[in-house]
From TrEMBL:
SUPFAM superfamilies cross-referenced by the UniProt entry: Cullin repeat-like (SSF74788)
Role of this protein: Involved in retrograde transport from early and late endosomes to the late Golgi. The GARP complex is required for the maintenance of protein retrieval from endosomes to the TGN, acid hydrolase sorting, lysosome function, endosomal cholesterol traffic and autophagy. Acts as component of the EARP complex that is involved in endocytic recycling.
Originating organism: Canis lupus dingo (dingo)
Protein name: Vacuolar protein sorting-associated protein 51 homolog
Organism ancestry: Eukaryota, Metazoa, Chordata, Craniata, Vertebrata
Protein family (similarity comment): Belongs to the VPS51 family.
Subcellular location: Golgi apparatus, trans-Golgi network; Recycling endosome
Quaternary structure and interacting proteins, as annotated: Component of the Golgi-associated retrograde protein (GARP) complex. Component of the endosome-associated retrograde protein (EARP) complex.
Residues covered by region (Disordered): 1-31
Entry superkingdom: Eukaryota
Keyword Coiled coil (UniProt): yes
GO BP terms in the entry: autophagy; brain morphogenesis; endocytic recycling; Golgi organization; Golgi vesicle transport; lysosomal transport; protein targeting; protein transport
Length: 781
């Protein structure tokens, strides 16, 4: 580039050339130079590596546009030594060679482009020559055509004006011919049934006949047309009133009558009256399907019939009415709205009657499909007749059905729970009747829990169909919020859990009512079931419900902790009632054994009474029964001689003093005082203390009730010497076996001590049996 810039330098740098074309040559070269830099993508600073701070007007700048070789050489000779001049020459030669090499490379690289451009230019020259010849011929032809056209126009000018006049006369004659032939055309159209064509003919001629009715000929034509039009209108009205055709034909009749100028309000009333007849026929057909004689179709077929028949007809009527009587304004819209509300209400009543027949079915899939089609069908009339509120009424029906289905499933869950209880009763009673070993309580509990849980899951799956995405009404606010929270969660799940707890608590009624006939094992099983619900099942069921039904409602719901507390309270009440019932059974045996025996004249005891053995057997059976469902529980540390402690108590100095010969009926006050003082320092026993959820607590409660009953019965009797000794033997036998069932063996010791002491206080001759004899009798028994 430096060499290229240096070539023209001397010619422009002499300074003696005049202003003119020679002065503009450097400017043209700079422009060409700039265009080349743009083509090759070089910036001003990159064009030849010029320093950023150099002066573009410097004549000694090799890369500048104003480079002057003479000035540059003078500067080098003045400023540089010989060695530097030689180096500058060598460097310049190297740069010139590099530039020559670059230029040759540029020429070689663009040689094919240059050749192709040359060929293209040559072809363009040839093509332009051909185009010029063709344009010349075209111009010649256009001139000839223009000349011919001018001569033709001049020749036909007079004829064109006459033709235009004749064409106008011809058109007028055709119109007059149409008017004169109009009566016959109208008569022929009426005879052929082409009512639409006849109305169009009348419409085309009406304005002209009205305008020229003062002329006698036009007046006659108008009179004839009016007679024919009146007959046409009469036939259209007759066809319209017969109503044999469908809604489109009826609408066509009304449209033609309106075009003939018939009163719109009268036609409006007649149109709705005819539509009412057709729609009422559809309603009667639906009502006939609900009758008792023919077998009613399934609910899906019923809704399809109603949707295609009544709802489709109502849509056609509404659409045609709005199109035909749009000019009637608000009055016409009110008529249509009242019409739709009346017939729509009757249709909804029939649908609700049919849906009510499905309330006993357990399958929701067919019902939900029917409701979906029912709701979809009413979208169109709901949009056409927004003021009638048909879509809202349909949504309310769907919501009512959903609420009723929730109630149905709640009743189904309650019935399933009662059925499980009945099965448990039968399973508990069957082995006793057949003398066989029945299923254990743990197995029965597992069966009841799994059965109830499976019924709950089935009910959730059934009602979940109402919120499926493909169902048209699932996006309604009720099904997105209240149905999920208040309907399913609160009404169905929480309602069933509370109903289950209430049913279980109903078995805790006082004896003689419902609770008196309840098997104790059932009370124990229900108690454990409620406890399991409190610990895990309630939380699992509510979590499952919340996951399936994404609640978008902010209304308050029952917390899990509240339900768990209710279930735990129910379990506690059931277990407490179980303790009372079992304690009552054993107490009845003890009471009868005390009340039916003559304790004053009884013989010397030789063995333990059979009722005491039965008490121990029943207590052992209860221990096994409770152990099947509840854990062992915590006991206090037992003494090493628990089985002999009763004997030592009865043979202690305190008891010996109480039973000493010095005790006579003449000094009862001293003995009573001693007994009362002893009670002050003994621990008070709460017979009906709260029962904990373990086996030890349950058995402790039963034994406390039984021994307390024995104590109270003993207090009501008078004992002889041998009667006292028999009580002593019985109490020792009970001590041998009952201490292992209670949480604190001291409780058994104290109660049995009270029994023997109470019997001694009521004995005229309180002589106790030797402890060794008591022990021998009990071991033998």
């Amino acid at each position: 580039m430096a060499a290229a810039a240096a070539g023209p330098g001397p010619g422009s740098g002499t300074g003696d050339s005049p202003e003119g074309p020679e002065a503009e040559a450097p400017e043209r070269r700079r422009k060409a130079h700039g265009m080349l830099k743009i083509y090759y993508g070089l910036s001003e600073g990159e064009s030849a590596g010029r320093p950023a701070g150099s002066d573009p007007l410097d004549p000694t700048d090799l890369n500048g546009a104003h480079f002057d070789p003479e000035v540059y050489l003078d500067k080098l000779r003045r400023e540089c030594p010989l060695a530097q001049l030689m180096d500058s020459e060598t460097d310049m030669v190297r740069q010139i060679r590099a530039l020559d090499s670059d230029m040759q490379t540029l020429v070689y690289e663009n040689y094919n482009k240059f050749i192709s451009a040359t060929d293209t230019i040559r072809k363009m020259k040839n093509d332009f020559r051909k185009m010029e010849d063709e344009m010349d011929r075209l111009a010649t032809n256009m001139a000839v055509i223009t000349d011919f056209s001018a001569r033709i126009s001049a020749t036909l000018q007079d004829r064109h004006e006459r033709i235009t006049k004749l064409a106008g006369v011809h058109a007028l004659l055709r119109k007059l011919q149409f008017l004169f032939e109009l009566p016959s055309c109208l008569t022929k159209c009426v005879e052929l049934g082409a009512y639409g064509q006849a109305v169009r003919y009348q419409g085309r001629a009406r304005a002209v006949l009205q305008q020229y009715q003062h002329l006698p000929s036009f007046r006659a034509i108008q009179d004839d047309c009016q007679v024919i039009t009146a007959r046409l209108a009469q036939q259209l009205r007759q066809r319209f009133r017969e109503g044999g055709s469908g809604a489109p034909e009826q609408a066509e009749c009304v449209e033609l009558l309106l075009a003939l100028g018939e009163p719109a309000e009268e036609l409006c009333d007649e149109f709705l009256a005819n539509a009412r007849g057709r729609l009422e026929a559809e309603l009667q057909s639906l009502e006939a399907e609900l009758g008792p004689s023919p077998p009613a179709p399934d609910v899906l077929e019923f809704t399809d019939h109603g949707g295609s028949g009544f709802v489709g007809g109502l849509c056609q009527v509404a659409s045609a009415y709005q199109e035909l009587f749009a000019a009637q304004g608000a009055a016409g819209a009110e008529k249509l709205t009242a019409f739709a509300q009346e017939l729509g209400g009757r249709y909804f009543a029939l649908v609700e009657r049919r849906l009510a027949q499905e309330q006993g079915s357990g399958d929701n899939s067919l019902l939900v499909r029917a409701l979906d089609r029912f709701h979809r069908r009413l979208r169109a009339p709901g949009a056409l007749l927004a003021a009638a509120g048909l879509a809202e009424a349909a949504t309310e029906i769907v919501e009512r059905v959903a609420r009723e289905r929730l109630g149905h499933h709640l009743q189904g869950l309650r019935a399933a729970f009662l059925g499980c209880l009945t099965d448990v009763r039968q399973a508990l009673a069957a082995p006793r009747l057949a003398g066989k070993e029945g299923p254990g309580l743990a197995e029965l509990l597992a069966n009841v829990a799994s059965s109830i849980l499976s019924h709950i899951k089935a009910s959730l799956a059934a009602v979940h169909l109402f919120t499926a995405k493909e169902v048209s009404f699932s996006n309604k606010p009720y099904f997105r919020g209240e149905f999920c929270s208040q309907g399913v969660r609160e009404g169905l799940i929480v309602g069933f859990i509370r109903s289950m707890c209430q049913t279980a608590q109903s078995f805790c009624d006082s004896p003689g009512e419902k609770g008196g006939a309840t098997p104790p094992a059932l009370l124990l099983l229900l108690s454990r079931l409620c406890l399991d619900y409190e610990t895990a099942t309630i939380s699992y069921i509510l979590t499952l419900t919340d996951e399936q039904f994404l609640v978008q409602d902010q209304s308050p719901v029952t917390p899990v902790s509240t339900l768990c507390a209710e279930a735990r309270e129910t379990a506690r009440r059931l277990l407490t009632h179980y303790v009372k019932v079992q304690g009552l059974v054993i107490s009845q045996m003890l009471r009868k054994s005390v009340e039916t025996r003559d304790w004053l004249s009884t013989l010397e005891p030789r063995n333990v009474r059979a009722v005491m053995k039965r008490v121990v057997e029943d207590t052992t059976a209860i221990d096994v029964q409770v152990g099947l469902l509840y854990e062992e529980g915590v006991r206090k540390a037992q003494s090493s001689d628990s089985s002999k402690r009763t004997f030592s108590v009865y043979s202690s100095s305190r008891q010996q003093g109480r039973y000493a010969p010095s005790y006579t009926p003449s000094a009862p006050m001293d003995t009573n005082l001693l007994s009362n003082i002893q009670k002050l320092f003994s621990e008070r026993i709460d017979v009906f203390s709260p029962v904990e959820f373990n086996k030890v607590s349950v058995l402790t409660g039963i034994i406390k009730i039984s021994l307390k009953t024995l104590l109270e019965c003993v207090r009501l009797r008078t004992f002889g010497r041998f009667g006292l000794q028999q009580v002593q033997v019985d109490c020792h036998f009970l001590q041998l076996y009952l201490w292992r069932f209670v949480a604190d063996e001291e409780l058994v010791h104290l109660l049995l001590d009270e029994v023997v002491a109470s019997a001694a206080l009521r004995c005229p001759d309180p002589v106790p049996m030797e402890p060794s004899v008591v022990e021998v009798i009990c071991e033998r028994g």
